[in-house]
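If you are new to this repository, start here. Below is one unmodified record pulled from the training split, so you can see the exact layout before writing a loader.
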Amino acid sequence: MPKMKTKKSVSKRFKLTATGKLKRTSPNLRHILSKKSSKRKRRLKRDSLVDKGQLKMFKKLMGLG
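And here is the target side for that same chain:
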């Protein structure tokens, strides 16, 4: 059976934490920033974790399971 290929687009978007969770950046911080408040933009800068329901799918696409 051949090796499972890594989906490069997924591996560039997510980082694996030491506990096995996936870290992602928040969307909505690229453009149209003038109407967004400073507080909202500050919160969007933070990284967040991938939802538990999607974790298995993304790990599989990254070639981790």
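Two things worth knowing about this chain: Strands lie at 15-16, 22-25, 47-49. The mean pLDDT is 95.
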